[in-house]
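Sequence, structure tokens quoted for completeness.
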Amino acid sequence: MKILIIKPSALGDIVQALPVLTGLRRRWPAAQIDWIVNDSLQEILDGHPALTKTILYPRKRWNCPSRIPEMWRWGRSLREERYDITIDLQGLMRSALMTWAAASPRRIGLSSAREGARASYNEFIADTALSAAERYLTCLEHLDIPVQPLDFQLIARAPLPDALNDFPSYIVLHPYSRWRTKLWPWRYYQELIDSMPEHRFVVVGEGPWFPLDAPGRLIDLRGKLSLSTLVTVLNRALGVLSTDSGPAHIAGALGRPTLVLFGATDWRKTKPSGSRVRVHTHALFCSPCLKRTCWRDTPVECMSLLMPQKIRMLLIQLAS
């Protein structure tokens, strides 16, 4: 049996889809199971015990027509693998083209697929009105495989950064997101740190720099971690505070106490999976708006109303 999973991005979605991989491995222990992933996200899958190999999709490199011959050879190599089953969990035109290139006898895709992707499938998974994690798990149900939704088998393999060797029991802060409307006000992070003098903090992520200060209690690793090292840092955390973003999904999959702040996005659709995940939101008439830009006179009020005092209480409860 040879199976191809197509889920190139994004980071959080890849993590949410890991139970599909582990379910397939339970069903077919001797199968070859490969996964197409963006080359920038490869590390999240490296060394996964249920995966045979990753197939890298260099999306940025292939944003140029001159690369078409290279793309063609890549697609031909997929066809030569002769996969028995291809599962497209991305549901977009580019993943549909990959599905078409693999030319498997069974081409399974989500009913919610967009951009004409459904034309590449010969089997459909009814996934509408479900959360992201539930949508992916319907694939296992479609294949009559028992579902274990928290079976991520995500393992921290990279060494801990030297800066944290003598820095025990820390809380990780991840303040970034690609959406402006997902961000908690920068000033609140300093207020939170100041209100918890008995705790240590590690700040991670990539985004606009803003100052944070807590002598002896804070280590700033923003922009300094590989993806695999980030997994290790999160895995050792006493607790994690994050926006709705990929690192929150990693922390949830690792079983760490994780508090995720939601504003513009709908936690019922994109909440990270995990037995120790909790979300915090402030309901407004306009939220969740699912927009990257806020049109209100008081911008992103849904996030600014999440007060540091409340976050402090929730973090202490979650990590205790």
